[in-house]
């Protein structure tokens, strides 16, 4: 029976293989200079095609996709990322799953926020909040409470994913909820990366997979994107819509956390 560390490594290898398979099947032959062909049983590149383009054997690549106990070098990861056309967040996710994680992530930090940081959030005029890597809300200001009609204070240890997928009020508040929901799942996957096997994140994932079919669907798609800013619209109980520009900042003193700010947007047309 494998110990906890071996089980975590095995889980990571399986996640790496599944991610590569999904990325391979999304990559068209034409995008890498190959003919589309007429007798492809599955969409995207074949395993042998990807292996050839990356300069590795088909057998070895197949073992990687199958989650077998093989070592993947940084050079191979770079080749896979290039051929598959991975974006920056996807590339970082690939390296983390291959145990070549960015040192920026480090281990999860469960300590309280440094003194004064909550007061900084309070001083921000527009809605603002701080999320940890599991997307728990560590701090928020009164403007956010007003915009979100009392959330996150009405939830014990509030979590943004639980709110979006398990709180019916989120569907009423967030304009274009379906589009935003699919996006945040891909953003969360990029955030947790190789740390998805941590007990707290696993517990959150299992809860969401069980209780939200929408989350389960998008989590299974293996999409990875960066958390980007842009226009966000919210509808209050009277039907009035307010618009904001969202900005997200990683905290240098707590790199596992990020500050999210919503600044009033009066430009009129969505991005």
Instruction: Compute the CA-based radius of gyration.
Output: 21 Å
Distance between the termini: 52 Å
Find the CATH topology of the largest domain: Beta-Lactamase
How would you sum up the major sheet? Answer: 5 strands, antiparallel
N to C succession of SSEs: HHHHHHEEHHHHHHEEE
Mean pLDDT: 87
CATH architecture name of the largest domain? 2-Layer Sandwich
Estimated helix fraction: 40-55%
- Counted beta strands: 5
Estimated share of beta-strand residues: 5-15%
> How many helices?
12
Number of domains: 2
Under the CATH scheme, which class of the largest domain? Alpha Beta
| Contiguous runs where pLDDT drops below 50 for at least 5 residues | 102-109
- Give the helix/strand class: alpha+beta
**Strands side by side in the biggest sheet:** 2-1-5-4-3
